[in-house]
């Protein structure tokens, strides 16, 4: 039974927003490589934790979104120490004694960069096997964090899986069969594409476990690493495209300077919704710049368009399976032949080639994330041990990728051990982004990204924030999405 509220809900959300904004700004500075006071961040984290506790004590389980948010925050705070330890282990223990990159020993953080640049298969295999062996240093930390989070939630009669499913507004059976259907439907298409690109990249040899998604994903685009045949610059281009749809992203601040401590990958932070939204990226190769900027601007326009009058909940609690829809939607215009030719001015053969390479990456993504998603869903559903999770993961990679990975690979991933669930959200968002584009295409034609009316429909969805009803444009139809990739 909830106790008598010691403060009103209005007062609670006002203060919650202040804490959120203060915390967001410091995390932004951290990722952007700017100076900030770590003690200030720790103090905001403490305040946020106390404030979540206050919610649970004063209001109990309603409003539901705030309850889920508070329980999650509490669970995260209680297990934060394991996350910090895992970060340290990754840079201190997951280190190669043999291979170097730009003079420094390759570690967990530079692994992908090494992989993308190294054509010597033996060297990549040796490093991979070495890191798989060293993942044993991470295992107890991941296990302790997952268990700790589960225990913290149990105090509020909820478990990690139910919390996730409730935030994503989907049932377990529906989600796991969606993943299974998508992964199985596309496996033959993925295998055929993998054969084509393996021939190009690996020669006679077939792809193996150490030729992972991240290797192929960057390696297939090597021919465009130096330059792209376009006179446009990504930030100006996406701003123009959005403007043509009647969407105003000019308030979104962009930081493209090259600071040493700045995160290597692009990111978007909504510090205060909708008035302070910032995107940060480091210029790398031209195609990655385009993809990263278009993706992050999808997040940017989303946060910047959320109605300021929306509830705290709808402004700050947006499920991942919703938040990624609009980022993927805008990133996907770069997978559109007409956009590449007419808007970016690519010659036909370049546009065709780029589209088929993106398609291969998309197929690889589905195969890989089908294994990732299924493992995480079943891990929580069946209460698996770390050993059982590894062995299940190994079987799932064989099932969806046709390549048996060492089971512990998931522990070295950047998303799988870091988030309690997350992976299935990315698959849901991909399908929904496709369904949204398809709907707009059917109503406004192939050049819907040039249409004010399409932009207006988008605007109406964006402005709702977490209050969006995805069923209005999405059936989460695995088959439709699979058919698109089969036919492309
Ligand atoms: Zn994103």
Note down, in words, how this protein is organized.
The protein has 488 residues and is mainly α. It folds into 3 domains: 9-87 and 142-158, no CATH class; 95-137, no CATH class; 234-487, Neurolysin, domain 3, CATH 1.10.1370.30. It is built from 20 helices and 5 strands. It has helices at 9-32, 38-59, 64-78, 80-92, 111-117, 121-134, 139-154, 160-168, 172-202, 213-219, 234-244, 286-305, 312-316, 320-331, 337-343, 348-382, 386-401, 423-444, 452-462, 478-487, and strands at 95-101, 104-107, 253-255, 267-272, 276-280. The strands form 2 sheets. It has a 3-stranded mixed beta sheet. A hairpin with a 3-residue loop joins strand 4 and strand 5. Helix 9 (172-202) runs parallel beside helix 20 (478-487) and helix 11 (234-244) crosses helix 12 (286-305). The protein is globular, with a radius of gyration of 22 Å. The mean pLDDT is 94. Zinc ion is lined by residues 295, 299, 324, 327.
How is the largest sheet built, in terms of strand order? 3-5-4
By CATH reckoning, the class of the largest domain would read Mainly Alpha
**Major beta-sheet overview:** 3 strands, mixed
CATH topology of the largest domain: Neurolysin, domain 3
């Amino acid at each position: 039974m909830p106790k008598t509220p010691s403060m009103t809900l209005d007062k609670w959300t006002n203060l919650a927003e202040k804490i959120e904004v203060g915390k967001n700004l410091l995390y932004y500075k951290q990722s952007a490589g700017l100076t900030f006071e770590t003690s200030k961040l720790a103090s905001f984290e403490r305040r946020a934790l106390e404030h979540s506790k206050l919610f649970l004590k004063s209001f109990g389980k309603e409003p539901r979104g705030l309850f889920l948010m508070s329980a999650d925050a509490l669970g995260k705070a209680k297990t934060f120490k394991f996350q910090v330890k895992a970060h340290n282990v990754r840079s201190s223990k997951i280190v190669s004694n043999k291979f170097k990159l730009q003079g420094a020993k390759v570690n967990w953080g530079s692994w992908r960069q090494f992989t993308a640049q190294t054509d010597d298969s033996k060297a990549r295999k040796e490093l991979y096997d070495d890191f798989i062996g060293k993942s044993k240093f991470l295992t107890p930390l991941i296990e302790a964090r997952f268990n700790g989070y589960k225990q913290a939630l149990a105090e509020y009669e909820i478990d990690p899986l139910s919390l996730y499913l409730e935030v994503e507004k989907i049932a377990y059976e529906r989600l796991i069969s969606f993943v299974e259907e998508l992964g199985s439907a596309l496996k033959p298409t993925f295998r055929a594409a993998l054969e084509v690109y393996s021939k190009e990249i690996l020669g006679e040899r077939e792809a193996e476990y150490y030729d992972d998604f991240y290797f192929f994903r960057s390696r297939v685009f090597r021919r465009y690493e130096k330059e792209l045949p376009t006179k446009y610059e990504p930030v100006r281009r996406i701003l123009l495209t959005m403007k043509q749809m009647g969407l105003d992203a000019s308030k979104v601040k962009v930081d493209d300077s090259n600071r040493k401590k700045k995160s290597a990958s692009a990111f978007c932070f909504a510090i205060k919704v909708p008035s302070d939204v910032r995107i940060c990226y480091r210029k790398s190769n031209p195609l990655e710049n385009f993809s990263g900027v278009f993706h992050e601007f999808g997040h940017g326009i989303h946060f910047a368009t959320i109605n300021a009058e929306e509830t705290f909940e709808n402004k700050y609690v947006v499920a991942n399976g919703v938040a990624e829809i609009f980022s993927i939607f805008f990133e996907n215009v770069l997978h559109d032949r007409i956009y590449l030719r007419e808007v970016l001015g690519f010659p036909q053969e370049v546009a065709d080639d780029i589209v088929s390479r993106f398609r291969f990456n998309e197929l690889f993504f589905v195969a890989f994330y089908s294994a990732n998603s299924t493992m995480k869903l079943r891990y929580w559903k069946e209460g698996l041990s770390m050993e059982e999770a590894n062995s299940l993961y190994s079987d799932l990679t064989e099932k969806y990728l046709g390549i048996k990975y060492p089971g512990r690979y998931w522990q070295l991933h950047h998303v799988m051990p870091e988030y309690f669930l997350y992976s299935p959200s990315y698959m849901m968002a991909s399908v929904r982004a496709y369904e949204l584009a398809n709907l707009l295409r059917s109503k406004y034609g192939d050049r819907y990204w040039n249409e004010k009316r399409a932009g207006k429909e988008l605007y109406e969805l964006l402005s709702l924030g977490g209050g969006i009803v995805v069923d209005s444009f999405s059936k989460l139809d695995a088959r439709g999405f699979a058919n698109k990739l089969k036919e492309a």
